Amino acid sequence: MGQNSTKPKKTQLSKPQVSEQIIETIPEMDLPVRSKKTSTPPPQSSKGDSLESFFLTYKDSDSDQIMAGGVERFCNDLKVDPTDFIVLAIAWKFNADQMCMFTREQFITGCSELNVHNIKEFRKMLPTLKSETSDKSNFKKLYYFTFQFGLEQGQRTLPIEMAVPLWQCVFLGAENRPKLLDDWLTFLQESSAKFISKDTWNMFYYFIETVQVDLSNYDETDAWPTLFDDFYEFQEDKKNTKTA
Amino acid sequence: MTQALNTQKSDTFDRKWSDIVRTISSVIRLEGVDRKKWNDSFSDVYALCMPYPVSYADTLNNYLEKFFEQHVLNIKYELDSCHRIHLLNQYSTQWNMFNDGVRYLNSLFSALNSRNAKKGMFDSRQANRLLLSLYGLLGDESKLEVSSMALKCWKEKLIIPLNERLTEAVIFEMQNDRQEVTYRTQIHDLVKSYIEVEAWQVMGQLFYYTHNLEESLLRAERDNYRNEAAARISDSSSTIGDYIQWAHRQLKTARDFGRQYLHAGTQIKLCREIEDRLLVDYLDRLKDEAVHLINKQDFEQLSVMYRLFKDVPEGLSGISDHLQTYYTEQGMNVIHKLKTSKNYQDYITNFLRIHTRYLEITTEYFSADSYSKEAMDHSLEKIVNSPEFTCDGAKAAEILAKQCDAILRKGSKIVSEAEVDERLTQLVTIFSYVDGKDIFLRFYSRNLANRLINSTYISQDSEENMIQKLKACCGYSYTNKLQRMLQDIRISEDLRIKFQLKAGEKNILKVLVLQSGSWPIQRRTAPSFQLPEDLTPLLMGFENFYHSQFSGRTLQWLHYRSTMEVSMTYLKNVHVVVATTYQASILLLFNKQDKVTLEDIMQLYCLPEEDVTRTLASLVESKILQEESQLGGTEYLLNMNYSNKHFKFKIASTMLKDTASDRNNVHHSINEDRKIFLQAAIVRIMKARKAQTHNQLISEVVEQSKSRFQPNISIIKKCIELLMEKQYLVRAEEDKTLYRYCA
């Protein structure tokens, strides 16, 4: 199910600049640096230089950002699936505010904070990043970040069809995939809910942390968002029909 | 020298003391003492207490103490040999005598008392003594007043040794014959003596009494009642009803007896004890009996039981729960039988009957106490808000609103103002139980608007009266808009008179100026509508007049609510028809032409086709117009043969009446209104509190909306979520059940 639901994201990613992708997948780091260096305005320190060229490798031809095509190439070079958790973790580290897009600042500051200057170093760094996110408080930050990351600009809620794959994705990185996640996602697809609010998103983390798998300690009079009440009812109904 | 002084001293003292002893021996026995003797002794005491030449006060004190000791011991011996039956009587006599005697002696020895006081050995100021005693500073040195000394002696030498016998005697006496205690006053005296002997103490005056006499007494009574209750309840020859009657009598007797002859604290404790033993111990069985009585409708008996349970914790609430269930069931049965009825009044009448009956029961048998009232109110609420209370698709709120309209509209059969008032009061009584007060308001304000605009109200006073009733029930904000509607009508009347003066006799325009926002009116007039030329100056005249009165206000004509009278002079018998603006506009065309088409009208008046079709249809339906199908389309002509038995009449309008969808609209918009109301309430609360936990917030919101409707928790939650999305609120990171207000 996870595969299916993530598909639309993939097609979205590969929309623009197919031709460019073919040309530029071969050079890795040093080759294009000199030729493109002239186009960048102020000369910087050597590390800054290499970051700049690193950025330029994936930069969109029309704007000063890395767009979907660039992100996809970046993922390819990292040898990771664009729908993989690690990409989400990178976006978190870069403090990206939109999917499939890094601004110059995000990319360069992000890389320098991670202390990587080219694709090789980046690739080497990935396991460290992975282990960093397995820390509970970091993971929680990343989880909260994911909602904001998934939002379309100007929107305050996440459409279900976006929320479901994001939930899938973010918990790929969790130490233990929450047992209730699948039930929850099934419920969402069957319910009439269309959007997920930030509060619901954040509370879900708290939900899986505190509520038992059989929901036996769920209390409807607590401050849960109504969607959880509905989920609780949904699960109870399922239980009852099973026993009946 | 000192030796001589001492002997001389003791000589004086002994001489005087022997005189004094004679006096006090008589006084303590309450034997008569002649005045001279009394005066002599008084002077002697005074002399002995004088510091010069030598003070004998301490010695006097000691001697006096010994005297009391001896006297009390004598009495004790007397009582020791006394038989149990007479003990109480004897004790009481002796005590009274002693107590009185001591009081006399206290005044005889006032010199000693005041000397002791002066010496600071005892301080009569209570506060000081209290402090001293608290710090343990009031040591052995302190000297008591003579009376206190005597009472202390009585306690130590008599009560303490005899305590067991005395207590036993009281218990025996009290249990011997509960109804007729022979030695009532004697018991009273005994109790009094236990307390009075400690009266001089600063604190803990009741300590000895409560821990000795009272405790034993209560213990004995507890055992006694426990046994008796057990015996009675298991006695198959008597019913629970008998038991209740018996318990009732027991409590009453104990209360009366306790009030008169025991200490007040003891009476309360005793009654509580009896309640516990007779009632609380058998609470479940008695409650079963209560259910039984309720089902039997034996309210007489239940009333006895109810009063009995008044002071028993959990007692009344248990009974009133059953009462509520009974009330609800009974009421629901009545309402259930009306299922097929399509007459609103049936529901009203039957509910009022139930209400009256329950009110009677509550006041007559349960003296309208809060528990029984609550039971009644809750059950009536349940009944009136139940799904069964639905007539022809209308729920209670709608039924009530319609009935109000029926009463307040012209043409109702009720003539006298008093009756109108009575009927309205009844409806408001029912209304107070209805959950959906906002639904009622919705229907009511629409009906009121119709009555006011069409001038079909019976009187403004009755309208005002009803609004006042609603205000009393739900508060100012509930009736605010209704009040303003009524006010608009009054103002419009003044305005009309002024306009009449200005415009002169020929004015035929009657305008109501309605504040927008107060009236439940949608602007349905097509914005493009062009008024027939004949009418324009008329309205312009008023507009000018109005603007001269109030500057800066905009007027908008609600043509679709307006009517005018059109004389149909072309007929054999002239008729006057009351037509809406659209209808009249169409009719006016026939002043100039014989036939009109739909397109003509649309073009001329700039009206949408829908409106024109509907208006034409209404005119054709009422046979004022005829339609004729032509090649180019339908043409409309006047029906020259029109006749109507009324001279003046109204065109039956087809554009109104569609109650079912109407009701849905109302309910839909009510739900929207409720959400807005709830959000406003949440924001108000949060703005004031800044932070609030989930449950507190919910309960405050429920509290605030109670006067309008019973909000559903999940809707409140949805509103909270909505406000979080709108960033009015935010959930606290550290406590997931806490919301914060975002300014």
Characterize the structure shown.
Chain B: This is Cullin-2-like. The complex is a heterodimer of chains A (244) and B (743). Chain A folds into two domains: 87 residues, EF-hand (Recoverin, domain 1), CATH 1.10.238.10; 104 residues, Cullin, PONY binding domain (Recoverin, domain 1, Orthogonal Bundle). Chain A has 244 residues and is mainly alpha-helical. Chain A has a two-stranded antiparallel sheet. Chain A has a two-stranded antiparallel sheet with strand order 3-4. Chain A starts with a helix and ends with a helix. The N terminus of chain A is likely disordered. Helices cover 63% and strands 3% of the residues of chain A. Chain B is mainly α. Helix content of chain B is 66%, strand content 6%. Chain B has 28 helices and eleven strands. Chain B has a three-stranded mixed β-sheet with strand order 3-4-8. A three-stranded antiparallel β-sheet of chain B has the order 5-7-6. In chain B, strands 9-11-10 form a three-stranded antiparallel β-sheet. Chain B is elongated and about 150 Å long. In chain B, 27% of the residues are buried. The chains are: A mainly alpha (244), B mainly alpha (743). Chains A and B meet through helix 12 of A and helix 28 of B.
Topology (SSEs and partners):
The complex is a heterodimer of chains A (244) and B (743).
Chain A: H1 2-13, H2 18-24, H3 31-37, H4 46-58, E1 65-66, H5 68-78, H6 85-94, E2 102-103, H7 104-114, H8 119-133, H9 136-150, E3 158-159, H10 160-170, H11 181-190, E4 195-196, H12 198-210, H13 226-243
Antiparallel strand pairs in A: 1-2, 3-4
Chain B: H1 2-28, H2 35-49, H3 57-80, H4 84-108, H5 110-118, H6 126-134, H7 146-176, H8 184-196, H9 207-233, H10 240-261, H11 264-278, H12 283-296, H13 299-308, H14 315-337, H15 344-366, H16 370-385, E1 390-391, E2 394-395, H17 396-408, H18 417-431, H19 437-453, H20 460-474, H21 476-503, H22 536-549, E3 563-568, E4 575-580, H23 581-589, E5 595-597, H24 598-605, H25 609-621, E6 625-629, E7 634-638, E8 648-650, H26 659-689, E9 691-693, H27 694-705, H28 713-725, E10 729-731, E11 738-741
Parallel strand pairs in B: 4-8
Antiparallel strand pairs in B: 1-2, 3-4, 5-7, 6-7, 9-11, 10-11
Organism (chain B): Oopsacas minuta
Protein name (chain B): Cullin-2-like
GO molecular function, one term (chain B): ubiquitin protein ligase binding
